[in-house]
Amino acid sequence: MNIFEAINALAEYAIKSNLIEPEDKVYTINQLCMNLSIDAYEEEEVKGDYTLEEILAACLDYAVEKGLCEDSVVYRDLFDTRLMGVLTPRPSEVIKKFNEEYKKSPVDATNYYYDFAKKTDYVREYRIKNDVKWVTKTEYGDIDITINLSKPEKDPKAIAAALTMKQSAYPKCQLCRENEGYAGRVNHPARENHRIIPIKLDGVDFFLQYSPYVYYNEHCIVFNAEHIPMKIDKAAIVKLLSFLEIFPHYFIGSNAGLPIVGGSILTHEHFQGGNYEFAMAKAPIEIPFKFDGFDDVEGGIVKWPMSVLRLTCADKDRLADLAGIVFNAWEKYTDEEAFVLAETDGEPHNAITPITRMRNGKFEIDLVLRNNITTPEYPMGYYHPHPEHHHIKKENIGLIEVMGLAVLPSRLKKEMADLAKAMVNGEDISANEELAKHSEWADMIKAKYDVNADNIDEIIKDEIGIVFTEILEQCGVFERTEKGKAQFVKFLESVK
After folding, report:
1. Is the pLDDT reported for residue 152 higher than 80?
2. Cβ partners under 8 Å of residue 5, min gap 6
3. Which among 206, 377, 384, 476 is least surrounded, fewest beta carbons within 10 Å?
């Protein structure tokens, strides 16, 4: 399609998607023309049933041809977001519509908002469809494995340009409310099509948004209106439980507040939630436990590769009280035999990853015990993926993966395809520069299975799932042995 058909198609798409009214069409076309440096529009009939991706691709190709945009993924993303910003309603309109839908039900409100995020291309569905996903059955339940391709990797042009750019402190981070409508730059994503919903958690101003790099259904981010650091304590737990009162169909949790075991943005208080049930939520209580003075709270150790205490109560204040007591106890807890040290040289190590949900009308919280201590043998973290698994994943294990969804690096898609061919063909994997890091693992697989072209892909997927499960076990502060379970109970007994 030529550029005039593409512009008309984009305006028609906006009308069909209820982003603009029919009366807005001429105005919208003129705004699109302005952004494409076109001063004389020629109406062209839309001849095909084009997808949004196809329409935007035609606009981007034109922009590249005319020198308006560099032909690289980062610059193209900046440019097509500017175009989508023309179609995206103002924040006040979105908030008004959200509140109208919320009067019907919280589900209606989030259904509207998530659909809106997809229609405005803030959530790029066409990229999410390229993600590689499968399930590995384990003794802990079905673990979700993903190779996430939604977040584009930076290209050399953008990296080089970012190095020469003057550093900007606006917005302060990618979570800040000032991102709403922001044009972006090569080292900060464009957000002209980004809209956020104000909410209050325990009287504190927060905003709700969806993640543009959706890792699971309706993956949302809830962030403080102020740019203040993460701090996981009883107050944070009260905020999480308050969120459930507003959106009882969502879970919500937080990364721990320390490096290595925490999230990527510790400088801005935020939580993550969504409409998805993870394997950890389905895992049963393995060892029931009652706390003195809290007979109304059901509790116990969860059958999970990491160290998880689950607490359930109909009264959110009582639940928050006990969770706060557990957190304070864990922060100061040391058990040298279990290699749990609260601090070394004044540096704190104990933290908690909390996850909350509603279940059968009661509030439920999973407290995942974390520790970020390093050793000479494990400089990246003792309770962290160990070196023998770094060929699959060496990044931090954050909230999402704690719950049983592996987010693996995009490089694995190609590496696993190449590895499968090499194994079937009997090649020397150790001699392949790109695949050599997988050679010991591949040798183990060949010794374990009779691999062939028909079964190799499924075998590799299963073995990746096994590796991820072992990584989660390595991140658990108490081992999954009888001795380790006894050490976990010993900690619970110390909570007063």
Report:
1. no
2. 44, 45, 46, 47, 58
3. 377
